[in-house]
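Give me structure tokens for this 224-residue protein.
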Amino acid sequence: MGYTVVRQKRKTVAIVIDEHFNVIVKAPNYVTKKQIETLIQKNEIWILNTIEKKRKLIETKDWYYTRKLMYLGQYWPVEIVECSIKSHNIPKVDFTDKGFIIISDGSEIMSRKLVEDFYRVQAKERLAQLANRYAQMVDVHFKKITIRNQATRWGSCSSKGNLSFNLKILCAPVEMIEYVVLHEIMHLKHFNHSKAFWKDIEILMPDYKVRMNYFKEYGQNFII
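Here you go.
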């Protein structure tokens, strides 16, 4: 079984299956190659089962195959319209109350890129508005916002005051997106997860625990 070893400053070894079904072993520097091989062999059944589950998830949840795209907490039908060189249509994504229309060359690569670009533009606009609103409420300031397409991390805040968000959170309902933004904005006041951090979160968002758990339960279904 093929796998990639990533050396990190950590105390334990972790086996991760990424979105491309690659087996990645995150290990401390002191763990030997032989120990890693033994661990892989010991967990072979778990690895194979996890890969199979991820494959089935893609087949049942990936919008390109289901033609249903999750946006702001709701699944919307997707229609892909192929445009030719002779046509006057340009590659783009249109969103209406009836769903998504993707005008592309018909290829999976272009269709996926157009959808990702659409989400990225929408994320920049929506998240900036929310960040500005919560920054005023918390009385803090941030420098810039970066949008990334990540596997599971929904947001982060750097010590320099820069915010980063996963464009996949646009799959979630608006109230859930609000929680992620408030969480990262609050880190500009409390750069930790102290009791004071959660207390201030609760003051502004009393049901934050419900919103937080939403991503744990449904986040794996967010595929763009």
